Amino acid sequence: MKREHEDAGRMGGDDPMNMGPEIAKGKMVPVMRTGDEMECGVDELLAALGYKVRASDMADVAQKLAQLEVAMSSDDASHLPQIAADTVHYDPSDLYAWLDSMLSELNAPPCAQLLPPTATASRGNGHSSTAAKPSAAAPPRASALHDFKPVVSAASVGRVVCDTEQQSEKILSPRDPKRMRTCSSSSSSSSAKEVASSLKSATEALPVVVVDTQETGVRLVHALLASAEAVQQENLKAADALLKQISMLAASQSGPMRKVAGYFAEALARRIYRHSPLPQADRVALDLLHSHFYESAPYLKFAHFTANQAILEAFTGFRQVHVIDFGLKQGMQWPALLQALALRPGGPPSFRLTGIGPPQPDNSDALQEVGWKLSMLAESIGIDFHFRGFVASSLADLEPQMLLEPEGKRRDRDGVEEAVAVNSVMELHQLLARPGAMEKVLGTVRALRPRIVTVVEEEANHNGRTFLERFTEALHYYSSMFDSLENGGDSGADGELEEQQRHRAMADAYLGRQICNVVASEGTDRTERHETLGRWRGRMAQAGFEPVHLGSNAFKQASMLLALYAGGDGFRVEEAEGCLTLGWHTRPLIATSAWRVGPAADFAL
Amino acid sequence: MMMLLLPHREEEEEGGAAGRRRFPINDNADLLAEVLGRLDGRSLAVAGCVCRLWSAVGRREAVWEAVCHRHVAVGRAGAAGGTRSVVAALGGYRRLYRLCIGPALDRLAGVRRQGPAVSSSSSAARHVSLSLALSLFSIDCYERLGGVGGRQQQPPASLLFLCKPVDVS
């Protein structure tokens, strides 16, 4: 019994499941745009009800349903491969790819109106719900939906989690398919429409089954994004309602997704209720969190090793060297450089370090302590070491004369000036919070005439114009980050040392603070203004610097370092136009670049 | 008592004086050191449990230096003398092996064991270089330095990422 599309059109409003079981071939049924009057009429009717679907798609739905019915009722597994071949498979352990696919589908530009015919997620303003049952059930309930503007989400359709071999995982969860919520949709009807159109992107996801955690995970991400959008539109009531849903959904997740959701929910709550921003005063605690982050993830080590390699190469041949560190913290970068300088052919130079740090609340001189420790190490390995600490609440307060010796740069016995290196690990982005600060600091750096400037920054765009843009980017970035901490960290399967767990928890808190800053703060408080490598390149070029390629030595050393981490091939070191990036799977997360003063930029200060 | 037997063609013919030569290795500590220096780290540590002499010889820096150099890829031919003094200052070759090189080699061997699923590009990076090991070692040494005035210090943890859970070294 061959079913015609006209039939489907005629039966548009009825339950297409009445169609008899039919074993269709495993290929997509294209949407037939017949000029059938009946079809257009039905379409308009449905559209008037707010249901953005075309009757011709119902045929597709029905076909797939029929297939599924047959497959599930019979014990013969021969049908399943065909169905599975039609579906899009997602690997549940690859959190990033899954999230990425969802978000890209959400944000995809509107294109051919091929609608995914099955499980729908209604996403109007202020609520999100996911249908477990395929949308064949939707038309009969179209009447019940007239309060909302349901939006079909391509991304939230259930996915076949397993491949054809593990058919046992197929669960069709017939429980509570839709969660209906009424809420005032007037204010954001326009945005709902635009989101609707963006969601109707062409996709070949013809899902067949839905698995529980995937569904709640999907709902969770949708709730987060919906809440962020509500916040952007100042619809705080709706955002708040979503937050409750988010926290409930987050409890059902595990691992990195749960943590990410938790931190983002907390940050959103802070933003909604205008809680005071996290206290900035506790530098000691911040340093502690930072050092734990250093231990538990390779990002900072990568940053230090690659920057050190660039500095080492820039210092070849100089007998007096001076490093200016824009964020000394615990000074963990410098022992390795000292050791490398001690072992360089030709013997070690005379080394001066200028460390800059924020003011401490209890007036203790953390910088001097770090300097003292470094000098002890340097003395033991035979390096002539000098240290100077500078307390500055912002880098923009520095002047070049302050940083150099009172009498300018040191000169060695041949009259050669000392080589200066400026090192900034994740410090520059904070300057973007205040207008003019970045230009001033880059001018100061240029005035020092350094041999090399090493810049390490997070590779993300958290400084977009709109809140939703920043939120979405941050969700992307921190999901990858948490994922890498969880899976790239040490031997999650073998059980971890208690200490490692403590480090992990602190590292999570460190990232949580960043999330809070990106999401909940505004204006000068929002210091975590990460930008992408491309933008930093532009900025540095504008300030008169030209790039220095990080050599293959840096790349090799970084690769070797990453090979030692238990995460295996999850971490990726990549080279991009002379800069090195470290990322988790396909997503770069941190980027190191090196610069020197360009020839044309001889501005006298 | 360990004996080092030298092959001797005329074993049966010669009588007493020109019989099979026996070298009790314990009589010659330097020879013992030479032999032990050709072991890998784990075997050397085990050898140190044999007797007091072996334990003492097995702790010699020269022995561990030989072991370290055997297992790492030395990039450029650095000044060997300079390396020795720096490593001594940081804590010695034995400690270097125990903290950095040994765990790193174990980690890489474990990865290799997991199968040839690793991409060819990263396989080139699957060895430890001396400079990397020394960098990690220096960081660890730095962490162990006490602060001024005996402030409560965090236990050194920068090498934890190399540790296996059961390793409580």
TrEMBL record, chain A:
<protein>
    <recommendedName>
        <fullName>DELLA protein</fullName>
    </recommendedName>
</protein>
<keyword id="KW-0939">Gibberellin signaling pathway</keyword>
<keyword id="KW-0539">Nucleus</keyword>
<feature type="region of interest" description="SAW">
    <location>
        <begin position="520"/>
        <end position="596"/>
    </location>
</feature>
<dbReference type="Pfam" id="PF12041">
    <property type="entry name" value="DELLA"/>
</dbReference>
<feature type="region of interest" description="Disordered">
    <location>
        <begin position="115"/>
        <end position="142"/>
    </location>
</feature>
<dbReference type="GO" id="GO:0005634">
    <property type="term" value="C:nucleus"/>
</dbReference>
<comment type="function">
    <text>Transcriptional regulator that acts as a repressor of the gibberellin (GA) signaling pathway. Probably acts by participating in large multiprotein complexes that repress transcription of GA-inducible genes.</text>
</comment>
<feature type="compositionally biased region" description="Low complexity">
    <location>
        <begin position="184"/>
        <end position="195"/>
    </location>
</feature>
<feature type="compositionally biased region" description="Basic and acidic residues">
    <location>
        <begin position="1"/>
        <end position="13"/>
    </location>
</feature>
<dbReference type="InterPro" id="IPR005202">
    <property type="entry name" value="TF_GRAS"/>
</dbReference>
<dbReference type="InterPro" id="IPR021914">
    <property type="entry name" value="TF_DELLA_N"/>
</dbReference>
<keyword id="KW-0805">Transcription regulation</keyword>
<dbReference type="GO" id="GO:0009740">
    <property type="term" value="P:gibberellic acid mediated signaling pathway"/>
</dbReference>
<keyword id="KW-0804">Transcription</keyword>
<feature type="compositionally biased region" description="Low complexity">
    <location>
        <begin position="128"/>
        <end position="142"/>
    </location>
</feature>
<feature type="short sequence motif" description="LXXLL motif">
    <location>
        <begin position="428"/>
        <end position="432"/>
    </location>
</feature>
<feature type="domain" description="Transcriptional factor DELLA N-terminal">
    <location>
        <begin position="43"/>
        <end position="109"/>
    </location>
</feature>
<feature type="region of interest" description="VHIID">
    <location>
        <begin position="290"/>
        <end position="355"/>
    </location>
</feature>
<comment type="similarity">
    <text>Belongs to the GRAS family. DELLA subfamily.</text>
</comment>
<dbReference type="Pfam" id="PF03514">
    <property type="entry name" value="GRAS"/>
</dbReference>
<feature type="region of interest" description="Leucine repeat II (LRII)">
    <location>
        <begin position="369"/>
        <end position="401"/>
    </location>
</feature>
Automatic annotation (TrEMBL), chain B:
<protein>
    <recommendedName>
        <fullName>F-box domain-containing protein</fullName>
    </recommendedName>
</protein>
<feature type="domain" description="F-box">
    <location>
        <begin position="30"/>
        <end position="69"/>
    </location>
</feature>
<dbReference type="InterPro" id="IPR001810">
    <property type="entry name" value="F-box_dom"/>
</dbReference>
<dbReference type="GO" id="GO:0009937">
    <property type="term" value="P:regulation of gibberellic acid mediated signaling pathway"/>
</dbReference>
<dbReference type="GO" id="GO:0009740">
    <property type="term" value="P:gibberellic acid mediated signaling pathway"/>
</dbReference>
<dbReference type="GO" id="GO:0019005">
    <property type="term" value="C:SCF ubiquitin ligase complex"/>
</dbReference>
<dbReference type="InterPro" id="IPR044184">
    <property type="entry name" value="SNE/GID2"/>
</dbReference>
<dbReference type="Pfam" id="PF12937">
    <property type="entry name" value="F-box-like"/>
</dbReference>
